[in-house]
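Hi there. Long-time user, first ticket. I'm pasting a complex I've been working with (about 560 residues overall). I'd like to know whether the download I got is complete or cut off, because the file seemed smaller than I expected. Thanks.
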Amino acid sequence: MRQKITDTLLRVATWLAAALTFGALFFLIAYILTRGIPYIKPSLFALHYNSQNVSLLPALVTTVLMVLLSLAVAVPLGLFTAIYLVEYAKRGNPLVRMVRMTAETLSGIPSIVYGLFGMLFFVTWLGWGFSILAGTFTLAIMILPLILRTAEESLKAVPDTYREGAFGLGAGRLRTVFRIVLPAAAPGILAGVILAVGRIVGETAALTYTAGTVAQIPESLMASGRTLSVHMYALSSEGLYTGQAYATAVVLLVLVAGINTLSAALAKKIGKG
Amino acid sequence: MRERSLQENLMKAVFLISTLISILTVALICLFLFANGIPAMGKIGFYQFLLGREWSPSDLPPAFGILPMMLGSLYVTAGAILIGVPVGILTAVFLAKVCPKPLYRVLKPAVDLLAGIPSVVYGFFGLVTIVPMVRMLFGGNGSSILAASLLLGLMILPTVIGITESAIRAVPGELYDGAVALGASHERAVFRVLLPAAKSGILAAVVLGIGRAIGETMAVIMVAGNQARMPEGIFKGVRTLTANIVLEMGYAAELHREALIATGVVLFVFILLINLLFSALRKGGRP
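Hi, the file is complete. Here it is re-exported in full:
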């Protein structure tokens, strides 16, 4: 009898917890959509930001720019490192252990610590000032462990028979890597890249003191600019443009949902492959 | 033939250089943070810095004690864990063992969405819903340890759910079947057999959740009140280590600036310890 009561209580608690989790998510999305959508007007997408239109277009452009540039730095670096670790390094190579320790140290470091480092190194020591370039490199370092790890996992998952087959047909190591191993590992690597895009889009703390907060489309790599998340933080802390802050949140949610759909589609592809 | 081996060696060098650069970044991060932060601790006094109860950088003489912020981070994180962990574990049980398949296909992407929502959006949501709610129910101005704990509890849910769910799924099915065959009910089999078997994975989930909560910056700033004083109760405002850096870095100079970087060093060390704990737990989980 007592066991039965406990069972019922546990069952109720489980359902309740799930209801709470998904209820909160649903409430958050519904709340932001209902308040934000009325503020999505053409003026919000004007080419130049001013205090009348509170345009988010410059921030959107900056976000896309930052994503592309950070990936251009971090993806080759992470991918090449992974290739070295999986395809070239011999067993027991001390570099392998060091990189693994590196990735482990870097993962989970709060983004504000990356921001501090970016400010000290890129902004001050290299003298780049608050700039797209400084922001880009800070973000690139931030997503490097993610790219490195997913690339390493995907390369490892490629069966050795592929490599042996290629070697047996007379292909060199380089050719084997680029023609045989990489195409097979591509979906997994891409999934990591998409996760990284999500992290960049959502980042704020690492950017305020590296890329700065100028609300216009940056004219050069050395100019300051704010991404959409930084824009939203600025709007909500100024407290004057609450409606536009909701609208920015809507755009951010749509972006994140798009990124998630992409990565889910890729995950499905990996599962099939 | 020669051309190809040249190419081979060239690319091998490129790969090796990439590897070295990856290692170098971590070395640089440590070097720059510690070289800028440690001297400040020396100037302020190691104990005055870590255990000082007063943070007043603009006073004469200034005081740089980060104990209030350390306690702030600690309380807010503890609150988030108290709220997020039970709900997260139970939701993971729901996803892994209770929920029907068609529902799962909707809920799994929902958890991923929860993980992907930017922290500013969470912060803003907390600012417009949780803060007014706390203000209405408990008085004060609403920005408080409680508001921050509630929001962070929500934010760590996807981390806790994701890792706990895969830990539960990794438990061999025989354990559950065996328990049921011995006459245990579904709930008893899940909570007495499956969860204990997934213990190390669940602990890892909690540790990672702690890491996320301590490291969260923008969302906390928006709901915690940010007063740099010793915490006075869960309905009062508080400032975390992360908030301390972001709020004052914009105008800080000289020793004040260095003290903020030293705050970053403390945060960095916290997370390193948590990472060590996490990987120890992960290894403990694998037989």
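A couple of notes from our side: Chain A has nine helices and no strands. Residues 2-38 of chain A form one domain.
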